[in-house]
């Protein structure tokens, strides 16, 4: 299959569209980092949750599970107290090896593995979760919105988890 002329070089949700192959699949030329995206999501939530104006833990969980499934094809989901925990023995953060754990939640990135105009869920989780964090091999590497006492039960439950997990809690919000 040959590659036709470039379709566009516009940036859409952090993805720079490169060239279009003859069979209409889009080739991702390069990923573009988009900073300040968390505040943009908070000020325009209807762009991310337009179905009925409700932002819930179930919708955030669905987005996260979809992303992990696309990237590493397997994950476990647990409810530990007030927290949802999504865990995989494969570390999907390592697919972007130059980034810190906080970047996953604070920097907008395209998710070309899931299709055109798809973005990673990290900044959306950061915008709406009350408590949010990640751990590797049972050790918390980054967290916001909670203190050590609040995370104590989660630490106990997660100490046997090998690999990456993201945990969060969210109150339902109506736009």
User: Residue share in helices?
Assistant: 25-40%
Elements, N to C (H/E): EEEEHEHEEHHEEHEE
Count of extended strands: 11
Low-confidence stretches: 1-31
Summarize the biggest pleated sheet: 5 strands, antiparallel
Total number of helices? 5
Spatial sequence of strands, sheet with the most strands: 6-7-10-8-9
Total number of distinct structural domains: 2
Descriptive overview:
The protein has 175 residues and is an alpha+beta fold. The chain has 2 domains: 1-32, no CATH class; 33-174, no CATH class. It contains 5 helices and 11 strands; from the N terminus they run ββββαβαββααββαββ. Strands 6-7-10-8-9 form a 5-stranded antiparallel sheet, with helices on both faces. Strands 1, 2, 3 and 4 form a 4-stranded antiparallel sheet that branches. α1 (37-43) crosses α4. The longest helix has 16 residues, at 57-72. Residues 1-31 have low confidence and may be disordered.
Topology:
Elements: E1 3-6, E2 11-12, E3 15-21, E4 26-31, H1 37-43, E5 54-55, H2 57-72, E6 76-80, E7 83-88, H3 101-106, H4 122-128, E8 131-136, E9 139-144, H5 148-158, E10 164-169, E11 173-174
Antiparallel strand pairs: 1-3, 2-3, 3-4, 5-11, 6-7, 7-10, 8-9, 8-10
Short description, anyone?
The chain is α+β, with helices and mostly antiparallel strands and 175 residues long.
Keywords:
175 residues, 2 domains, alpha+beta, five-stranded antiparallel β-sheet, globular, 5 helices, four-stranded antiparallel β-sheet, disordered N terminus
């Amino acid at each position: 299959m040959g590659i036709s002329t470039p379709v566009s070089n516009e940036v859409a949700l952090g993805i720079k569209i490169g060239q279009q192959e003859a069979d209409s699949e889009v080739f991702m030329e390069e990923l573009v980092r988009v900073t300040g995206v968390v505040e943009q999501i908070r000020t325009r939530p209807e762009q991310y949750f337009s179905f009925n104006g409700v932002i819930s833990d179930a919708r955030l969980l669905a987005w996260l599970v979809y992303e992990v499934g696309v990237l590493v094809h397997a994950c476990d989901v647990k409810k530990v107290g007030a927290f949802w925990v999504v865990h995989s023995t494969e570390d999907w953060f390592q697919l972007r090896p130059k980034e810190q754990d906080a970047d996953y939640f604070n920097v907008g990135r395209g998710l070309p593995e899931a299709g055109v105009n798809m973005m990673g869920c990290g900044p959306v989780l950061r915008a709406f979760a009350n408590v949010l964090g990640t751990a590797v091999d049972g050790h918390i590497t980054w967290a916001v919105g909670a203190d050590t006492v609040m995370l104590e039960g989660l630490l106990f439950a997660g100490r046997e988890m090998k690999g990456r997990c993201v945990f969060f809690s969210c109150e339902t919000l109506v736009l």
